[in-house]
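Researcher: I'm preparing a figure for a lab meeting and need a structural model of a single chain. I don't have an experimental structure, so a prediction will have to do for now. The sequence is pasted below. Please return the structure as tokens so I can convert it later.
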Amino acid sequence: MPGIDGSALREWRRSRGWDVPEVARQLRRAAREAGVSVAAPAGLIRMIYAWERGDHDLSERYELLYRSLGLGAGKPDSEAEPGQQPAIPSRLASLSAGQLDELIGLLDDQWHALVRTDNLLGPRYALAGVRGQLGLIEALLRTARPPARHQVLQLAARYAESAAWLHEDSGDLPGARYWTGRSMEWALETGERLMMSWVLYRRGEHAAADGDPAAVAGLAGAARREGGDLPGPMLAAIFQQEAHAHALDGAEVPCLAALDQALERAASPDDPGDASGGHGSFCTPAYVEMQRGRCWLRLGRPADAVTALQGAIAGLPAVYRRDRGVALSALASAYAATGEPGEAASTAMQALDVARDAGSERIVAMVIPVATALAPHQHIEAVGRLREALAGTSTA
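Model: Understood. Here is the structure written out token by token.
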């Protein structure tokens, strides 16, 4: 592969926090989106090892797939592929104080725009922009001195946290954990307690996905302690996370109490979806009720989950489309558990439509167990359609 040797491929992979099987999974996902074929998983893994050792060159097809995942964003302008992020300007080190302030303000504005892009179009469309801005911010950190460095670090922590979320929604948990770690590193340097608290919350979300109630409870408690006097919506998000820890432990009373505390502090339902309201601004009353429904599922009360989720779906702000997908997938699980396979399949299809439209592998992963639970009902037309749809939406 001209200009990129095996060691560069390996270093790029490690910078993402990925192992070789994860690179293979991401390449296969990129290939599906591009409508091209690639080797089977085991064969692709062997090929990646060979490319990284320098035993074989990449074909044009695989080179383009690698580039679609972000490889080569730092090439000189004269070598950059069409549509790729341009090289970081060398003049960053010579910016005047006024120009640096202007650039910091621009990056701040663009972060809010990227959040809205993510909410409206999903991670595939926002991630490229976030990666590009992170490259620029990391270059700024090599030259910026106090007091401007503090502002750049704040941006770095915020963009890295966004990158972590986008990787998580794309189904890339290793990438999510890598960028969460970078966000914590930069937040620690700034000493910004709110950001450190929010990254602890994000780590708690990873623990919840892993089904580890002890870690969820510990991280949520640390997030509350670290943040000090937290804004209401941020505290609401942490309380609903604590509710999931209690639900995972089967503790109904403290779970519901934590959800009630979250509801008291929830964000305005008119949130514009650009995070201008601060951390946790997505945690509206409808979002809390969605989490109540998911907690009822974890507590083995699917009928109560149906009631909570139906109300939540009706009240979710339109801008948070993927939250609707998450709520629909949970509602489908609840219908399956209450013995309504046709309704479960139809609702799961709605969730899958959101997932496909937004590129959310996270929601696809939530729908798969519903289809598995409905396997004994394949004779029902809606169930058959769901299984056929999932067959073309593999997350492997």
